[in-house]
Automatic annotation (TrEMBL):
It holds the Pfam family Glyco_tran_28_C. This is UDP-N-acetylglucosamine--N-acetylmuramyl-(pentapeptide) pyrophosphoryl-undecaprenol N-acetylglucosamine transferase. It is a peripheral membrane protein. The gene is murG. UDP-N-acetyl-alpha-D-glucosamine binds at T30, G31, G32, N144, S229, Q333. Cell wall formation. Catalyzes the transfer of a GlcNAc subunit on undecaprenyl-pyrophosphoryl-MurNAc-pentapeptide (lipid intermediate I) to form undecaprenyl-pyrophosphoryl-MurNAc-(pentapeptide)GlcNAc (lipid intermediate II). Keywords: Cell cycle, Cell division, Cell membrane, Cell shape, Cell wall biogenesis/degradation, Glycosyltransferase, Membrane, Peptidoglycan synthesis, Transferase. Residues 223-380 form the Glycosyl transferase family 28 C-terminal domain.
């Protein structure tokens, strides 16, 4: 039996011994939904060590690797993607949603959950539907500057909405009452941001260790090319061209680390071998499990503008060249990118203009200008991303409280 802990921000009410906090988190598809879900899970466990946390996801996404690897059970639902389903298969969506919602309800009941949280991705809306079917409170966290259809739908089913970026408020039903908590990011990244801002000596030591771990040649500036959790072929190709260009110039003051995604690794390595056989100028890896090391070691990051990446860059303050994915629903990556470009912490490069030549033209003057790089780092506004996991966890715990305003009239109504 759980003893009511002495809670900072103590917001659960205790009149009698009760079951442990049990929360089901719906998150899936790509890293941008799963890592924030995992950061929330960790924050819940920090606040209530005996909390029972489970995830719902699908068989198709990165969650099948990342969630069990982090030590949490994953229950899979049969759900089709919201956006692709709209087209000719639009008529399949209500039935798919109800079926997946019923599966989520079974998980919620099985786990004796008190709250469901939708973090975005395929499984997010079913988690919220499942909570409605079970008469439980739910909360939606919107991570993008422009919400996707799944979360716009889910936000109509619950009055509890939290935002990563304030600018998405106007797109959501109930958005006016939403709280901007920031994007939950992993504890090592939040810590890296704090160290970078408050302890230059410690950060310099960390940076040296990270550069060693990533095999960055001594004295070279590191350009990290990180497409997003799945990689981005356009960026990988441009980065290989850039490496070839710098290698031809015999430059030993720059090094490119290319995160390709697993599917593109062998092709990228073959192309790199043709221009830089001994990996002096560039190295390709499939995935980086330690993004904290990668950010700490980098002088510039070239990346897509997924919301988690944008929030992490704002937190750690690494200057960025952002190449928004042009087919993201609602062009949300371009809006995400603005978070950094409007601060002066990032430069925008349209996807169609991205090549080895355009990257060289952008990066060469930038890397040669340490004051400009430092100004970009200084301009990055960390906002509340470093604290977002704890802020969101406090909201979730408040909803789980027996006397909390969880049984909102909207949650009592049937969704049918
Ligand atoms: C193509 C597409 O539709 N992408 C969407 C997807 O992005 P996607 O999941 O690719 O990208 P994000 O940038 O949001 O998140 C990537 C996450 O994976 C981590 N990471 C990445 C690479 C790596 O090697 N190791 C690693 O740990 C990053 O640190 C970050 O935490 O979900 C995001 C959140 O809704 C959206 O904003 C993006 O538009």
């Amino acid at each position: 039996m759980r003893t009511p802990p002495d809670r900072p921000g103590g917001d659960r009410h205790h009149t009698a011994p009760q079951e442990p906090l049990s929360v089901v988190i719906g998150a899936g598809g790509t890293g941008g939904h799963i890592y924030p879900g995992l950061a929330l899970a960790e924050a819940l466990r920090r606040a209530e060590p005996d909390a029972v946390i489970s995830f719902v996801g699908t068989e198709r996404g990165l969650e099948t690797r990342l969630v069990p690897q982090a030590g949490y059970p994953l229950h899979t639902l049969d759900m089709i993607p919201f956006d692709r389903a709209l087209g000719a298969r639009r008529y399949l969506l209500p039935a798919a949603l109800l079926r997946a919602g019923a599966q989520a309800r079974a998980v919620l009941r099985d786990q004796r959950a008190q709250v469901a949280v939708g973090m975005g991705g395929y499984a997010s809306a079913p988690a919220v539907v499942g909570a409605r079917l079970a008469g439980l409170p739910s909360l939606v966290h919107e991570s993008n500057a422009v919400p996707g259809r799944a979360n716009r739908f889910a936000a109509r089913l619950t009055p509890h909405v939290a935002l990563a970026f304030d600018r998405s408020r106007t797109h959501l039903s109930g958005g006016a009452d939403a709280e901007t908590v920031g994007m939950p990011i992993a504890a090592p990244l939040a810590q890296l941001g704090r160290t970078a801002r408050t302890d230059p000596g410690a950060f310099a030591r960390l940076r040296e260790r990270a550069r060693g771990a990533l095999r960055v040649p001594p004295g070279a500036r590191l350009v990290l090319v990180a497409g997003g959790s799945l990689g981005a072929d356009r960026l990988t190709r441009a980065a290989v061209e850039l490496a070839g260009h710098w290698r031809a110039q015999r430059r030993d003051d720059v090094h490119v680390l290319i995160k390709t995604g697993p599917a593109a690794l062998s092709g990228a390595r073959a192309r790199l071998a043709a221009v830089d056989g001994d990996e002096r100028t560039a190295r390709a890896v499939a995935y980086l499990d330690r993004m904290d090391l990668a950010y700490a070691a980098s002088d510039v990051v070239i990346c897509r503008a997924g919301s988690a990446t944008v929030a992490e860059l704002a937190t750690v303050g690494v200057p960025a060249v952002l190449v928004p994915y042009p087919h993201a629903p609602g062009d949300h990556q371009r809006h995400n990118a603005r978070v950094l470009t409007e601060q002066g912490a990032g430069l925008l490069l349209p996807d169609a203009d991205t090549s080895g030549d355009s990257l060289a033209a952008l990066l060469e003057p930038l890397l040669a200008d340490p004051r400009r790089l430092a100004a970009m780092t200084g301009a990055a506004d960390p906002g509340t991303h470093g604290a977002a996991a704890d802020l969101l966890a406090a909201r979730v715990r408040a909803l789980a409280a027996p006397t909390a305003p969880s049984r909102h009239p909207r949650e009592e109504r049937s969704i049918a």
